[in-house]
Amino acid sequence: MKRLVVPLSIVGLWGLFAWSYQGQEDGSSGFSPIGWVYAIFLMPYKLLSMSLGWAHSNSDLPMIFLSCFGFWGLLAVGGALLLRSRKVSA
Hints:
Number of helices: 3
Largest sheet: none
Helix content: over 70%
């Protein structure tokens, strides 16, 4: 269980960075590398909202960030468990 704290804390720090960086770039001249780090964090929600035709407002931002944290958190925990199972079997 302790090993799952590391990937979740990395995703949490990534989410905190994305939340604090929000609104710093408008993307009109392209994102900087830091802007891409921010944009990739929000990509799961953006793809889902575009495919389903959802609209969102500023009041939805906490839900957007929490859903992206959930997606990336599940991916990080799954990756950590997969690496752990490979180490145990080897």
